[in-house]
Amino acid sequence: MLPKITIGEWVDVLVVWATDNLTSLFDAIVVVIQFIVGNLAWALTAPSPWVIIILSIPLVLFLTNWKTAIGTSLGLLLIYDLRIWEPSMNTLAMVIAATIVALLVGIPLGILSARSDNAHKIIMPVLDFMQTMPPFVYLIPAVLFFGTGAVPGLIATVIFAMPPAIRLTGLGIRQVPVELIEAAEAFGSTQYQKLVKVQLPVAIPTIMAGINQCIMLALSMVVIAAMIGAGGLGSEVLRGIQRLDIPVGFEGGLAIVIIAIILDRITQGLGKRDNN
Amino acid sequence: MLMAKVKVENLVKIFGEHPNRALKMLQEGKSKEEILEATKNTVGVYNVSFQVEAGEIFVLMGLSGSGKSTLLRCINRLIKPTSGKVFIDDEEITGIDENKLREIRRQKLGMVFQRFALFPHRTVVDNVAFGLEIQGLSKEERLAKANQVLEAVGLKEWENSMPNQLSGGMQQRVGLARALASDPDILLMDEAFSALDPLIRKGMQDELLSLQATLNKTIIFVTHDLDEALKIGDRIALMKDGAIIQIGTPEEILTNPANEYVEKFVEDVDMSKVLTAEGVMKKSETVITPKDGPRTAMRRMRENGISSIFMVSKDRRLIGLVMAEDALKAAEEYKTTLDEVLLKDTPRVAPDTPLAELLPLVAEAKYPIAVVDEQNYLQGIIVRGSVLSGMIRKGENKTDAS
């Protein structure tokens, strides 16, 4: 009979080893993430919702246009009215924190994959692997290493949301026309000058699309992460499902959609502004 | 002696994974096809040597795939040659390190691209200033210099536009300005005008030539367009399959093609656009001076079998033309000078007048046309016969060769 290959057991050994030996690393990660999310969540929930709703108008207007600015404030007003302001702001804080971390790691990796064919050959299959995995699967190691709560939820979110940032940054840089690269080199650019004066600026629209994707994925994952106690709007939806409470579930879902649309419009507007 | 500004020696570029194997096969005299089959490597440039003098416009010409653009990129090492040497100002650049190469690119080499290659996210003036910015010049310095160059190419008022707001011809002027901004000695131009429509292209060629008259750069110009090569090239190198087949002045290439390939290449050339008055004129040995009377003039014309004769001063400046019948009349009337019958406003042309402009003159003229230089010295004369023989000269050569 065919002997079973013990892949599952190998992974188990690895996980046990990691939990035994990498505790201090995991603790450090927890501290950093808690610091970022904690402060963001505090900044969004401490002031009166009215302050946030009114301040959102000039801020979004500065980033994009009138339509988006008005839409944003109306959307936030509806969330406030539905009495789910605090979970919504927690979700928003987690999305922003996860996106920041994902971009801090993802964009440099994207640049690396564009500049080195070897890095490209390693990174691309890993991304394929990551993107075909169902999002729930990310929760398992997160729980094993970090327990339950907001931090493992965020780490799962960061990993889940990172691939498009890496992929589209790399793609954007690789798509810069070869003549522009030649022009940069022919005038005597250093590698660094070529990157910051030509490749990155020309790739900005593609990179912005990657950032947009990254935020959208982060939002969807943050909701799923409620299953391991990450809190926020995901918990509302989960509650709605568990108790078959249609009003709670629908209102939570609606707030998620509103936040999704706001974030999408703002990042798309940013991309267009840089285009012009 | 003129110093070679750019010198290329036995340059070879092989694309593929085993350049050394392919190189060895090349040295054994194998053909491009054999090498492609055996090693999957493509020979881009094959054993090319040439020199470009300072201030010269040197044209690399050939069909697409002939290796001309590859060869050009080997000169500033955008493409690293497989073997052979490239010298710029007697400095070998094939062996230098990245830093030194960057310095040479910044100081000595400017490049203009076929599809302009302007940076879409930068304004026109920031595009032009790019090379200076890379060199670390302050903002004021580089903008001042960039504006100056923009003015020279006639785009001053467009400085704050984005490249995509400009027409093709204007974009390429920006490309040219960008290459000129750091004041390099050498301009590499890769099919620089090929993407422009014919009228604009012609205008740009003229503009390049007039800019060159004041700037006196060393220009290496790649083109697949023979007319363009003939128009702007001081010398032309004709390439096929990565090798140079013939190097020569436009006239040499046209009138003395090295082999059948060159011959086929140039057979459709409109000779009237290439040949100049100087090329088709006859040296006029037979002239008269003001002290000669009608009888001398008559005798000279009779001796040489001509029906008119030019009068020049002692130092051979053109004074006028005397027709045979007028001289005869003056002789019959016992005049001692030719003053009364001297024609002073017969047509005159400069030596570099293209044949295309001469043809209508020749067709209409009742008189032979005088070719004079700027100081009005008589260089030669053009009659109908000399134009025709000039145009069929190429045909004669062909029969000689076969």
Account of the protein in words:
The complex is a heterodimer of chains A (276) and B (402). By secondary structure, chain A is mostly helical. Chain A has one domain: MetI-like (MetI-like fold, Orthogonal Bundle), CATH 1.10.3720.10. Chain A has helices at residues 7-21, 23-45, 49-63, 66-81, 85-115, 117-132, 135-146, 150-174, 178-186, 191-224, 233-242, 246-275. Chain A is flat, with a radius of gyration of 21 Å. Chain B has two domains: 4-269, P-loop containing nucleotide triphosphate hydrolases (Rossmann fold, 3-Layer(aba) Sandwich), CATH 3.40.50.300; 278-390, CBS-domain (Roll), CATH 3.10.580.10. A six-stranded mixed sheet of chain B has the order 6-7-8-3-9-10, sandwiched between helices. A four-stranded antiparallel sheet of chain B has the order 2-1-4-5, with helices on both faces. A three-stranded mixed sheet of chain B has the order 11-12-13. Chain B starts with a strand and ends with a helix. At the A-B interface, α9 and α10 of A face α4, β6 and α6 of B.
Q: How would you concisely characterize the structure shown here?
A:
Chain A is mainly α and 276 residues long. Chain A is built from 12 helices and no strands. In chain A, α3 (49-63) runs antiparallel to α4 and α5 (85-115) packs antiparallel against α6 (117-132).
CATH superfamily descriptor of the largest domain in chain B: P-loop containing nucleotide triphosphate hydrolases
Span between N and C termini of chain B? 38 Å
Strand tally of chain A is 0
**CATH level 3 topology of the largest domain in chain B:** Rossmann fold
SSE pattern of chain A, N- to C-terminal:
HHHHHHHHHHHH
The top-level CATH class of the largest domain in chain B is: Alpha Beta
Q: Order of strands in the sheet with the most strands of chain B? A: 6-7-8-3-9-10
CATH superfamily of chain A: MetI-like
Say what the CATH topology of chain A is: MetI-like fold
Label the overall shape of chain B.
Answer: elongated
Q: What does the radius of gyration of chain A come to?
A: 21 Å
How many domains make up the coordinates of chain B?
2
